Amino acid sequence: MATASALPLSHHLVRLAALLALTQAFPATAETYTNLTQGTTLTPLRPTTFWPSPSGDFAFGFRPLDSDASLFVLAIWFNLTSPQAVVWFANGDNPVQAGSKLELTSDGQLSLTDQSGNEVWSPGVSNATYAALLDSGNLILVSSSSSSSLWQSFASPNDTLLPGQTLLAGSSLRSRLTDLDYSEGRFSLVAQNDGNLVLYPLALPAGNQYKLYWSTNTAGSGSGSRLVFNESGSLYYSLTNDTQIDIFSTGGSYSTKDFYQRATLDPDGVFTLYVYPKNASNGQQKWQVGGIKPTDICTRIMNDYGSGSCGYNSYCVSNGDDQKPDCLCPPDYSFIDSTRKYLGCMPNFEPQSCEHNETDLFDLEMLDETDWPLSDYEHYINVSIDQCKDYCRTDCMCAVTIFNSGQCYKKKLPLSNGRQTGSFGGTALIKVATGNANSLPQPPSSTVTVEKKDRKSLILVGSLLLGSSGLLNMVLLAVISVNVLCRYGNRRPIKPVSSMSGMNIRVFTHRELEQATNGFSEELGSGSFGRVFKGSLALDSRTWIAVKKLDRLLHDSDKEFTNEVRSIGQIHHKNLVRLLGFCNEGVHRLLVYEYMSNGSLKSLLFGSERPQWNQRTKIALGIARGLVYLHEECSAPIIHCDIKPENILLDDNFVARISDFGLAKLLRTDQSHRTNTGIRGTRGYVAPEWFKNVPITAKVDVYSFGVMLLEIICCRKSLGRGVGNEEVMVLTYWAYDYYREGRLDLLVENDEEAMADVSVVERFVMVAMWCIQGEPFLRPSMQKVIQMLEGAVAVPAPPDPSSYGSSIR
């Protein structure tokens, strides 16, 4: 069995023999020794839980699960990184508790036993003199009578390869079930004996393979082919004729001298190269994606059986440049278990019954560019989208229908192989319940039922009522009802009264939102539209919301307000904050939105620590995609009129979501209409045409985006103070001056990650300069902006934007 460590095994044996001479007479400790000698043990708790490698780069021992600190896996991990990424583990399907131990027995067997003394894992060899963790991250068992290792972890990989490691023909990697669950997962990377390197989805729990979703297409090249991760950090597939196929096109960007590296088959099925700079500043020392295969897993996996890349009834989306996927639920569906998304989604409402005529209780919500391509049971051609909706609404078996260029496809649950991609031009129409049928899930029964002692009282009262007059019965029933409501009303979940006919959003009473926000006690922020408060839809299930109290409304009539809200509620996109409901009660006008846990882009950009360059580029592209949808793709195009970092919110995964779109029409006339004294937008972001007697178009949003793109690049505000705190520093002028002088390093001062990607920095700066041109016709559309940002089209040198006049007033 050939070793794959960075130096010949004989060299390590000499080194380890010297260490053994110094350590064999003493008990091992995590701080001092590297070798595990016969008769010594490791335990999940003190005194000794792990051994480091000689350099300290790696550690071997017991590691508590992130999901349950009382359970442990025997593992190898990067010891000096944050987080400490696990690269090998022995008992992923059977974590152990305190009281377990790892021992190299007197007969040379390495054995992991649980708290009851039952053996959980062993490599299956004996006569080992000692075990050692090498600086390559390879754990070896060595016999003094043999010139080679008896066993090594490099030959028994789980989901990860390290530099110096080889995956031989007939071997495979197996993903974990989730990031926090070390059980065998849904994907495998196999070096097949026919010479092909293949990624397979697997059927759980049996583990049989579905159709491959990526390969090197080298079948027939011979059984001697192997996947090599060499000591310099190059990962390639070596064929028997010595041909080498690069897996990740890194071009030598990452050396093992400067970066820790690992190649991991992630739980989402993407084979990913992760790199971690060894010598960068603390703010930059993070695991980063260096390459992925495949780059389009959302569309790659397509099987007649199985759920696809995500769980049943969910759909796969790609987030940003690295195209790492995420799984989402359709409108009014929720994950069965949000910590195990692979289990899929279920509707939050009772599906349509075929026993009764319930057509009026269901409607269809639109989800653009989304498809479940293998769940069709009916197909119509030459129909309109309204006809397609009606065909599904009146069919009790139809859960979703897909409309695409006059064609309509009906689908039943469960839905499989879901994906959302710009290459698909169709629209998914999701059947959801309306009215009372669409109320939120009830909490546990203990919160909504009358307690036992109170039921007895009600039974007694009911018995008395049977012998009383009808009038007395009515009076007593009213008293009892009021009493029950008063006692238990505050313990019920906050749920909407209904949904408006033909609307996909919910209607709330002011009282419900007052309870949901604890009396509007936690203010998240305020702006031109009013103040925003944090709340929760249910007392037990902590569904967080953001409630916006609107001021200075243009529309006084209920009908006009409802029509405006209706149009906003029909807009759905992954880069827009979704409107969940509203309140229109007397003088109270409130909007209920998704709560964005990571706050605004303003807080991220201008906080104490500068966000990573890759994160900033993803956010910029997300904002651009959201604006393309508003300008060109939604049914009624929308000009936002106030694009700025405060109106860009960040969800749990730091995906950019545009807020406050469509609200400009809700402001009063003197605040919303463009006049000589009133301008929509915010100082520093408004386009020059606001100050001229010319029509306002979507190009005002392009201008604002350009200013904000410079803020994203430079992590500087659009307006700042210059020398002596007297002169206003205009970012657009300052950035163009440095761009013209070729000093991009000054734009991203001390940002090593950005300067390592200087060609992208230059491209982004040039795109920003085109966006902030004074003349609207010179500015590109947002669709063109995305193409330029992604490098799909060339970006010509921009003219000086200040030559057309300043918008800073």
Automatic annotation (TrEMBL):
An example molecular function term from Gene Ontology annotations: ATP binding
Record-listed ATP binding positions: 549
Domain Bulb-type lectin positions: 33-154, 158-286
Gene3D superfamilies documented for this protein: Bulb-type lectin domain, Phosphorylase Kinase, domain 1, Transferase(Phosphotransferase) domain 1
Pfam families with a match to the protein in the record: B_lectin (PF01453), Pkinase (PF00069)
GO BP term, pick one: response to other organism
Ranges where the Protein kinase domain occurs: 518-793
Cleaved signal peptide residues: 1-25
Keywords: ATP-binding, Disulfide bond, EGF-like domain, Glycoprotein, Kinase, Lectin, Membrane, Nucleotide-binding, Receptor, Serine/threonine-protein kinase, Signal, Transferase, Transmembrane, Transmembrane helix
Enzyme Commission number(s) of this protein: 2.7.11.1
SMART domains: B_lectin, S_TKc
Main location: membrane
Bilayer topology term: Single-pass type I membrane protein
Subcellular location: Membrane
Protein name in the entry: Receptor-like serine/threonine-protein kinase
Organism: Cocos nucifera
